[in-house]
Write a sequence for this structure.
């Protein structure tokens, strides 16, 4: 999904953010100081930096300024406990791409990260394919061959998660957690229902791609694979 550098001097918060991002299939590196952030930005070549403003040695805004001065265009999402307009503008002025004010929800942070990654990706980078299936994250379009397939937002999210994990069996619980979020109060029958919807739409235009692993879950794979 991408490489994220998390720069946060509070160990508990750094671990919480890193764990949530890894759960979303991101590769995560953590730094606790501005100096470490600058060094690891060069070493790990991240796709995005989550950068706390109030670091113990260098302000996050200064870290961002130095990265930009060195020619780095890596997107930066600031974490700040400050809510003043001038502080938010200051972060964006030095080259930040977005900011999230503490306290924040992990869901909000992940949504902001995904939005920045989409916005800063080169044209066409949002397209993912499997066999004759193409999913475009930028336009939310789905194609099988030349045929466009209209999906609801939930169907799209379900298909996208299966596509991210093509060849791996995803349990109903994993699908519930990733597609319907962690606080969903329903049962796993909703997964079976939406898998049925997806199959009906996809199978009209080619061989089946979503397969059932009895009593476990579902997998996106080619028909001939076992």
């Amino acid at each position: 999904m991408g490489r994220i550098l998390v720069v946060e001097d509070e160990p508990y918060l750094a671990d919480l953010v890193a764990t949530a991002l890894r759960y979303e299939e991101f590769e995560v590196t953590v730094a606790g100081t501005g100096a470490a952030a600058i060094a690891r930005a060069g070493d790990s070549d991240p796709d995005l930096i989550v950068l706390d403003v109030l670091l113990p040695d260098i302000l996050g805004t200064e870290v961002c300024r130095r990265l930009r001065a060195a020619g780095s265009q890596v997107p930066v999402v600031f974490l700040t406990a400050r809510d003043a307009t001038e502080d938010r503008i200051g972060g964006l002025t030095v080259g930040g791409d977005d900011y999230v004010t503490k306290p924040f929800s992990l869901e909000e942070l992940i949504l902001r990260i995904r939005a920045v990654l989409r916005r800063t990706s080169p044209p066409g980078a949002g397209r993912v394919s499997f066999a004759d299936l193409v999913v475009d994250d930028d336009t939310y379009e789905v194609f099988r061959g030349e045929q466009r397939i209209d999906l609801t937002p939930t169907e799209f999210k379900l298909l996208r998660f299966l596509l991210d994990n093509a060849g791996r069996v995803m349990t109903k619980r994993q699908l519930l957690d990733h597609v319907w979020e962690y606080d969903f109060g329903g049962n796993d029958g909703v997964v079976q229902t939406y898998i049925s919807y997806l199959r009906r739409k996809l199978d009209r235009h080619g061989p089946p791609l979503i397969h059932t692993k009895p009593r476990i879950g579902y997998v996106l794979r080619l028909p001939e694979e076992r």
